[in-house]
């Protein structure tokens, strides 16, 4: 049986989602650049701002990110004094990431770029379609379709 590669590429959910994610991430990185943050760093600081100190594993799970990838993204944030990583408050054996005052200030400064990126995205795709896309992507993240294949 011959496989139509063009059809496979056109119908591949994974490829389409990854390409869209890279395209959107590059756009957000460009708009956030004046703040000195990348989109992933903005997301990390934002999560810590909303949730407070979190263990590395909790933060990785909340961001749907591999722990190793998160670790690589935390290093420059820690180096720049935007976060601190230290023993957990309830269990000193666990390492927690905490937002610093400098991190809060940088996040606040970056919100202007984030708002600009959000506005431009909504202008191009429409507010309702953008909201529907976010809802659909949240459903994908919350689903357990991957576990069903085991």
Could you please describe the fold and organization of this structure?
There is one protein chain. This protein has 150 residues and is mainly alpha-helical. It has a single domain, classed as Winged helix-like DNA-binding domain superfamily/Winged helix DNA-binding domain (Arc Repressor Mutant, subunit A, Orthogonal Bundle), CATH 1.10.10. 71% of the residues lie in helices and 8% in strands. The protein contains 8 helices and 3 strands; from the N terminus they run αααβααββααα. It has a 3-stranded antiparallel beta sheet. α2 (13-32) crosses α6 (101-125), α3 (39-51) crosses α6 and α6 (101-125) crosses α7.
Oligomer: single chain
Mean pLDDT: 92
CATH fold name: Arc Repressor Mutant, subunit A
The number of helical segments is: 8
Low-confidence stretches: none
Give me the CATH superfamily: Winged helix-like DNA-binding domain superfamily/Winged helix DNA-binding domain
**CATH first level: which class?**
Mainly Alpha
Count of spatially separate domains: 1
* Biggest sheet architecture: 3 strands, antiparallel
Read across the widest sheet, the strand sequence of neighbours is: 1-3-2
Topology as a string of helices (H) and strands (E): HHHEHHEEHHH
Gyration radius (Cα, Å) is: 18 Å
Helix content: over 70%
Q: How many DSSP-defined strands?
A: 3
**Whole-Å distance between the termini?**
26 Å
Report the CATH architecture: Orthogonal Bundle
Q: Which outline best applies? A: globular
Into which percentage range does the β-strand content fall?
Answer: 5-15%
Question: Helix- and strand-based class?
Answer: mainly alpha
